[in-house]
Write a structure and sequence with these properties.
Blueprint (H helix, E strand, L loop, with lengths): L27 H9 L15 E4 L12 H10 L4 E7 L5 H11 L2 E9 L38 E6 L2 H15 L11 H6 L4 E4 L6 H9 L1 H14 L4 E5 L5 H17 L3 E3 L11 H11 L4 H4 L14 H7 L4 H13 L6
Parallel strand pairs: 1-2, 2-3, 5-6, 6-7
Antiparallel strand pairs: 3-4, 4-5
Helix pairs in contact: 2-3, 6-7
Length: 342
C-alpha cells in the first residue's frame, strides 16, 4: 500500500538544535569541562537500623493503650525487624504478641517492667521535691520519687535465653505471692537470685535510675547503677528516651555522663505506650483513671506530646542525631536476644 503523499520515505534523525555562535554556544571541549564540574544531589544517609525494645500493651492495666496485635500491625507497617513487649509485672500478653508477630514476620521479644519493692528511698536530710539537676519545668507528679502516692520504680528486664525466661517468671511469681492483686513487687535479693539470662535496661521516667537522679542527684544515681552492674554483670544498658520534654533532656545528659564514667552501653528506645499517634487520647483517659481523676483535672499527669508511639528507624535517627550508635545498639541488642516463645 503506497504511503500518503505527505509521509516521508526516509525519516531524518532527531537531534537537538545547535545554538548559533554568540547565543550561548559552547564548544565540545567546554561542554566536557562543564560536565566535570557539575554537582550531584546527595541522597540522605540510610537510617541506622532500629528495633523497639520497650513497648507496653493493654495488658499493662491502664498504662498501655494498644492490644498486642495492634502493636505488631503497626510495627509491620513501619518495617521494624523486632519489638519487645515489656508489660508491667507480667508476660500475660506475650502469647498473643508472639502469634501476631509470627504471622507478620517480626521477631517478638519477651520482657517485663518489674516493680521494685525498694527503688532507693530519699536519703535522710534531702527533701523529695529537691531537683539537683535544676530541671525546668518540674517533672510530672508520676516521676516524683518519695512523694506521697508516688508510683514505685520499675526495672525493665529483657529475656535473652530460656534460662532468662524461667528466671523472669520466677521473679514475677515470687513478687506477686502474698500480695494484693496489682501490688506485686520484687526486692533486690530476688533479682540477684534470678538474674541469669536477663538483660537490664534502666528505663525511662518510670525507672529507678531516673527517679534517683531527680530526687538525690548524680552520685546517688551512680551508686544505683553500680548496684545494677553487680546484679546483672555485663548486662546493663543505660536507656535514653526523647519525647520533646525539657526535663527529659536534662536527665539524658546526666545519664550519658554516668554511662561514660562507668563505661556502660547506651541504647535508645521510645518507651512505647500506644501503637499510633492518634491513640494518645485513649492513653490520656487511661492515665486519668489510673490516677483517680478526670481529664480536665489531670494536668501534667498527661504527656505533653503525641510521642510515645512506635516509630521508624528514620524517626529515631532524627530524634537522636548526635547518638546514632544508641539507635543502632537497639537493633544489635534485639538481634542478640535468642529467646522467643517458639
Amino acid at each position: 500500500m503506497p504511503d500518503p503523499p505527505d509521509y516521508p520515505k526516509h525519516r531524518p534523525a532527531i537531534s537537538p538544535p545547535v545554538p548559533a555562535r554568540g547565543s550561548g554556544y559552547a564548544s565540545p571541549g567546554a561542554r566536557k569541562e562543564r560536565l566535570k564540574k557539575r554537582t550531584y544531589r546527595k541522597l540522605p544517609a540510610a537510617a541506622a537500623p532500629y528495633a523497639e525494645l520497650h513497648a507496653v500493651s493493654a495488658f499493662s492495666f491502664l498504662e498501655g493503650a494498644s492490644l498486642p496485635e495492634d502493636l505488631i500491625q503497626r510495627a509491620a507497617e513501619l518495617e521494624l525487624p523486632a519489638v519487645a513487649l515489656i508489660d508491667r509485672n507480667g508476660v500475660y500478653g506475650a502469647p498473643r504478641f508472639y502469634q501476631a508477630a509470627k504471622q507478620a514476620g517480626i521477631k517478638a521479644l519477651v520482657g517485663a517492667e518489674v516493680v521494685l519493692e525498694d527503688d532507693g528511698q530519699v536519703s535522710p536530710g534531702r527533701q523529695a521535691g529537691h531537683r539537683p539537676l535544676g530541671l525546668v519545668p518540674e517533672p510530672r507528679p508520676t516521676a516524683n520519687r518519695g512523694a506521697e502516692g508516688a508510683e514505685p520504680g520499675r526495672l525493665t528486664l529483657l529475656v535473652a535465653s530460656r534460662e532468662g525466661y524461667r528466671n523472669l517468671c520466677r521473679i514475677l511469681t515470687t513478687a506477686a505471692r502474698g500480695r494484693p492483686k496489682g501490688e506485686a513487687a520484687a526486692d533486690w535479693e530476688l533479682l540477684a537470685a534470678h538474674a541469669g539470662g536477663l538483660r537490664c535496661l534502666t528505663g525511662g521516667e518510670e525507672g529507678p535510675l531516673a527517679r534517683t537522679l531527680a530526687a538525690e542527684g548524680p552520685e546517688a544515681a551512680r551508686r544505683l547503677l553500680e548496684r545494677l552492674q553487680a546484679t546483672f554483670p555485663g548486662r546493663v544498658h543505660v536507656e535514653l528516651q526523647r519525647h520533646r520534654q525539657r526535663d527529659e533532656e536534662h536527665r539524658n545528659q546526666a545519664l550519658l555522663d554516668l554511662a561514660r564514667r562507668l563505661r556502660l552501653p547506651v541504647v535508645a528506645t521510645n518507651g512505647v505506650r500506644y501503637a499510633r499517634p492518634e491513640d494518645k487520647p485513649l492513653h490520656d483517659v487511661l492515665t486519668s483513671l489510673r490516677h483517680h481523676t478526670h481529664l480536665d483535672a489531670a494536668g501534667r499527669l498527661l504527656a505533653a506530646h503525641r510521642e510515645r508511639h512506635l516509630k521508624t528507624a528514620a524517626d529515631m535517627a532524627r530524634a537522636f542525631p548526635e547518638l546514632p550508635g544508641a539507635v543502632a545498639a537497639a537493633a544489635e541488642l534485639a538481634a542478640s536476644l535468642d529467646f522467643t516463645l517458639a
